[in-house]
Amino acid sequence: MIEYVEMSLILRPWQTATLTASFWLIKAGSALAQVYSGGGVKAGVSAASGTGVSDVSLKSLIGNIVDQALLFVSLLAVTVIIIAGFYLILGMGSDSSRETAKKIIIYVSVGLLVIILSKLFVNLIKSLV
């Protein structure tokens, strides 16, 4: 026998989402209402001094980030050139695979040139500032 359930007792998906969000907001509000009773900024700075965070200037920090990003992109470009070589070899001499590999190598070579020029530009800016 089929039982009929009254529709008002079943939560619709938007009602469930609303109830869940309300619950999380209430819990987050109680967590945010806690009071900090620490020693202030000086105590926080002295506590953070032993964590390995150094006093690096913004200039050198940005320079290091840019250097790491350029290194990553350069390694990625070399990897793509190697993949293009595999594409050329596994294409078994077909004209379409040869043209595709040729285009990939040309585009990546131009990208590497842009990376090298951007590295020179960053070093120029770092030396001027």
SSE map:
Elements: H1 13-32, H2 41-48, H3 58-90, H4 95-128
Helix pairs in contact: 3-4
Strand count, sense and closure of the main sheet? none
Task: Count up the helices.
Answer: 4
Helix and strand run: HHHH
Q: How does the overall form come out from the CA principal axes? A: flat
Report the radius of gyration as a whole number of Å. 29 Å
What is the percent of helical residues? over 70%
Amino- and carboxy-terminal Cα gap = 83 Å
Descriptive account of the structure:
There is one protein chain. With 129 residues, this protein is mostly helical. The protein is built from 4 helices and no strands. It has helices at 13-32, 41-48, 58-90, 95-128. The chain is flat and about 70 Å long. It starts with 12 loop residues before the first helix and ends with a helix. The mean pLDDT is 75.
Summarize the structure in short.
With 129 residues, the protein is mostly helical. It has helices spanning 13-32, 41-48, 58-90, 95-128.
